[in-house]
Write a structure and sequence with these properties.
Radius of gyration: 15 Å
Strand content: 15-25%
CATH architecture: 2-Layer Sandwich
Number of strands: 5
Strand order of the largest sheet: 3-2-1-4-5
């Protein structure tokens, strides 16, 4: 997949997929996320304007988190079809724990839990409901304390 195709898949997923529109509702318009192509290192900015997410060229100067996305992870997430946010969330988390590092999506948090909460990121997680919490519990993140510890690790 060349760079133009990678960006187009990001745009189709974040800007046009109905489940992303639904999942973005708790997010504040002030969010700033870097979406980085793992193969090329090229960064894109994910923001929210009104009810919609927007992908634009270039990495943001300030961001709450960085997703380093492999082609395999992008295809795994973007081409999946479900109306259930919890099931979709599991799909995203699956890419973060894949055994093959070359296929894995990585996340690095650049903001603390308070800022992430204020910006609405935890609201997206809550939309996943029992489905996502059951999966997190099965993977050792069944309490808020465990989630907090995981966040600290992601902040490196």
């Amino acid at each position: 997949m060349d760079e133009a195709q990678f960006k187009e898949k990001l745009v189709l997923f974040f800007e046009r997929k109905p489940i992303c529109v639904e999942a973005a509702k708790p997010l504040k318009d002030s969010i700033s996320v870097e979406l980085r192509n793992a193969a090329s290192g090229v960064g894109y900015t994910l923001t929210k304007a009104g009810e919609r997410l927007r992908v634009s060229d270039g990495a943001p100067a300030e961001r709450e988190m960085v997703f380093t996305i492999t082609e395999a992870a992008l295809v795994h997430v973007a081409d999946f079809d479900t109306d259930d946010i919890g099931t979709y969330g599991i799909r995203v988390f699956e890419t973060m724990i894949w055994p093959e590092a070359s296929r894995r999506m990585r996340i690095a948090l650049k903001a603390g839990p308070i800022k992430l909460g204020f910006k609405g990121y935890f609201g997206v997680l809550m939309l996943g409901g029992k489905t996502i919490w059951k999966w997190l519990s099965l993977h050792g993140l069944g309490s808020l304390g465990k989630v907090k510890d995981a966040i600290k690790k992601l902040m490196g």
